[in-house]
């Protein structure tokens, strides 16, 4: 028996990295998965991987920073699978550690619109659906160690992820009585599409690894397992919290 048998999950940013790892793991655990990404090709690859493993998946091309896209993604998921149980707001982009004085409007708007507004849209639209269905629901947001302290990103990224943390806590309290649980994972340094170029720079990689007590970066699957816990009944009494998965980085 899978931990998500009979559930329907929508995962944004599921064409790569931890979103893809979560999509595969959730499907292995019995969920039907809507693979959402603004890169259609990689989203299709994830869906194919799931189908090859015997799971069910659909692909939806959507940009999380656009309300119409998020609205359509949820509607298409419900149309295909009959309902929505789990929303994973995971899509995000990095700012390459740009410090405050060098942040231009384009960078600020891109990072805030995708990482924070996209997460807000995902919360808003999935909650509308959960309330309509009347059976509660689960939201897992991807924040970051950059959401609970400084120097794991530049100014815009750090602000966006602090915003995701605040959003998670606020929305969790607003909808707890409706049976909707809202939590966030806070990954540390994880090898994904987002970081592969950064980690190729051995000086940068050593800088990050030097901050991590366990002395290594993590894998997308490490985060997917945390998302599964927050999405499943195992965490039935958990809401408004942060699950930090960072090899001990933020323990110091
Ligand atoms: N990799 C890390 O070290 C790390 C650490 C902490 C937090 N995070 C967060 O984890 C999440 C996943 O990132 P990842 O590391 O797996 O990176 P990734 O680049 O491998 O995957 C991110 C996916 O999101 C998609 N995406 C980006 N903007 C989008 C948009 N506007 N609409 C729809 N899809 C969009 C990309 O196409 C990509 O497939 C992000 O929110 C990121 O900020 C990453």
Compact description:
The chain has eight helices and seven strands, in the order βαβαβαβαβαβαααβ. The protein is of the alpha/beta class and 252 residues long.
What does this structure look like?
Strands 3-2-1-4-5-6-7 form a seven-stranded parallel sheet, with helices on both faces. The longest helix has 29 residues, at 105-133. It contains eight helices and seven strands. It has one domain (8-243): Rossmann fold (3-Layer(aba) Sandwich), CATH 3.40.50.720. By secondary structure, it is α/β, with parallel strands linked by helices. Nicotinamide-adenine-dinucleotide (NAD) binds next to helix 1 and helix 4.
Number of domains: 1
Question: What structural category arises from helix and sheet content?
Answer: alpha/beta
Based on DSSP secondary structure assignment, what is the total number of beta strands? Answer: 7
Structural Rg: 17 Å
**What's the overall geometry?**
globular
CATH class: Alpha Beta
Mean pLDDT across the residues is: 98
SSE sequence, one letter per element:
EHEHEHEHEHEHHHE
Number of contiguous helices? 8
Largest sheet: 7 strands, parallel
């Amino acid at each position: 028996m899978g931990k998500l048998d009979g559930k329907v999950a929508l995962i944004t940013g599921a064409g790569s990295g931890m979103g893809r790892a979560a999509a595969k793991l959730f499907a292995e655990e019995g969920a039907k998965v809507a693979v959402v990404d603004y890169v259609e090709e990689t989203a299709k690859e994830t869906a194919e991987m799931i189908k090859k493993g015997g799971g069910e998946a659909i692909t939806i091309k959507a940009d999380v920073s656009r309300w119409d896209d998020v609205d359509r993604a949820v509607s298409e998921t419900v149309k295909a699978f009959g309902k929505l149980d789990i929303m994973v707001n995971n899509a995000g982009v990095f700012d390459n550690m740009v410090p405050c004085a060098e942040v231009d409007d384009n960078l600020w708007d891109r990072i805030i619109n995708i990482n924070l507004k996209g997460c807000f849209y995902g919360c808003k639209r999935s909650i509308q659906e959960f309330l309509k269905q009347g059976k509660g629901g689960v939201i897992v947001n991807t924040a970051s160690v950059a959401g609970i302290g400084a120097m794991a990103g530049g100014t815009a990224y750090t602000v966006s992820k602090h915003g995701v943390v605040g959003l998670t806590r606020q929305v969790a309290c607003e909808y707890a009585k409706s049976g909707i649980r809202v939590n966030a994972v806070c990954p540390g340094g994880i090898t994904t599409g987002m970081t592969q170029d950064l980690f190729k720079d051995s000086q940068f990689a050593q800088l990050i690894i030097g901050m991590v007590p366990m002395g290594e970066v993590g894998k997308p699957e490490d985060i997917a397992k945390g998302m599964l816990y927050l999405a499943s009944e195992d965490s039935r009494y958990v809401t408004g919290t942060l699950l930090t998965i960072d090899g001990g980085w933020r323990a110091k």
